[in-house]
Each structure stands twice: as structure tokens, then as C-alpha cells.
Amino acid sequence: MVATAIVGIAGGCFFAFHSREQSGALHERQVTLTGHPLFQSDPSSTQSSVLVAIVDSDSQKRKFSWPQQALAAGELPPARNLRFTFFESPHGASWPLELSRIDDDSGTLFDGSICLLHRESMHRTLVRMLQPSELIYPAPAIEDALFPHSGFVVARPGMGSFEIPTWICETCHRERDRWLDKARQTASASN
């Protein structure tokens, strides 16, 4: 049963993954705000490690996920204005901002274009979001932990199907492909 599920995941994810790099097709706008983060709890998030914040100077009070793994909220320089650079979603203002960089006068505190796992530069591309119904085995959390920037993005239920811009790490993508190939071979050998 596990082998069948792995083959289903591998096959479904292999065919569902679709990316194309077209810088003109991303239709993202960068927004820079200067100020301090205000942290909020996110009742829609089931992950307790996800911190939601807004920049205190943002008149629209747009939310974004704080990069807790890269820059713990408690490690912020005290009493300094920070420059936040975001990507604004082409899907509208109801979507959260995607944090790209945090800078202060001393330099860059966070750079979203660098893979935290492999410490290499990534490229930005469009990726089709997978629907939960397209997954045979509930492994998105495992894949996200192992290959955080592979281009595997799962939509929340009821979100619809469309492409979103995301960062892709070539090493994450390559390692995920190897992992899926190994899972397919293991599943084939056990049948």
C-alpha cells in the first residue's frame, strides 16, 4: 500500500509539476516599505512555527510570513528602521505579500532569493499549484522539509488551480527528482 502511494505521489507530482521561466510573465510588482514588523497570530495557519507580520508603516496593513528559520524575530536589531522588499501578488490585494529582502543600514538581514538549505541563489518562475485531490499520499510537509524550493506547491482546499510565482533552487529540484525516482524504483521492486 505504501509502495502504491509512493508511485502515485511520484507519478502525480512528476506530471503535475509544470514550471516556466518568463520574467515578463511573472507580473509581479516589488514593494518596499520602511518600518518595524508587528507580529500577529494567524488563526488560519495550522503550523505553529509560522509567524505572520505587517510593517507598521503600511497603510494597507498587508500580511506576510516572517522567515523565522532565517531570521528569528528575537534577533532583530533594536530600534532601527528596516527596509522590507516584497513581491506583490498578481492575484490581488487579498493575497499576502511575499517577503523578498530585509535590509538595514548595516546590510542585508534576510535574502529570500538564497536557498536556506543549499545556500545557493535561486531563480523565480511560475509554478502550477497542485490541488490536494491530486495527491494520493499526504506527503507535502515531508517534501517541503526535504526540498523547500523544488517548485512543489500545494494549494489550500478551495483555492482553485492557477500558476504562482515562486523561487526555485536547482539543487532542491534535482534532489527531489532523484528522491521521486528512487521512490518509483522501490515501489516497482516491491510489486
Question: Helix content range of the residues, please?
Answer: 10-25%
Summed up, the domain count is 2
C-alpha Rg, in Å?
18 Å
- Overall morphology: globular
Q: Give the overall average pLDDT.
A: 76
H/I helix tally: 3
Beginning-to-end CA distance, first to last residue: 10 Å
The CATH topology of the largest domain is what? OB fold (Dihydrolipoamide Acetyltransferase, E2P)
Give a short account of the largest sheet.
4 strands, antiparallel
Amount of beta strand: 25-35%
Q: Pick out the low-confidence regions.
A: 1-24
Summarize the structure.
The chain is built from three helices and ten strands, in the order H-E-E-E-E-E-E-E-E-E-H-E-H. It is α+β, with helices and mostly antiparallel strands and 191 residues long. It has two domains: 28-111, OB fold (Dihydrolipoamide Acetyltransferase, E2P); 117-186, no CATH class.
Write a concise keyword list for the protein shown above.
alpha+beta, 2 domains, 191 residues, four-stranded antiparallel sheet, OB fold (Dihydrolipoamide Acetyltransferase, E2P), globular
Structure explained in plain terms:
It is a single chain. 23% of the residues lie in helices and 27% in strands. It has 191 residues and is α+β, with helices and mostly antiparallel strands. The chain has 2 domains: 28-111, Beta Barrel (OB fold (Dihydrolipoamide Acetyltransferase, E2P)); 117-186, no CATH class. The strands form 3 sheets. Strands 2-6-7-8 form a 4-stranded antiparallel beta sheet, with no helix packed on it. It has a 3-stranded antiparallel beta sheet with strand order 1-9-10, covered by helices on one side. Strands 3-4-5 form a 3-stranded antiparallel beta sheet, with no helix packed on it. A hairpin with an 8-residue loop joins strand 4 and strand 5. Helix 1 (2-16) runs antiparallel to helix 3 (170-190). The longest helix has 21 residues, at 170-190. The protein starts with a helix and ends with a helix. Residues 1-24 have low confidence and may be disordered.
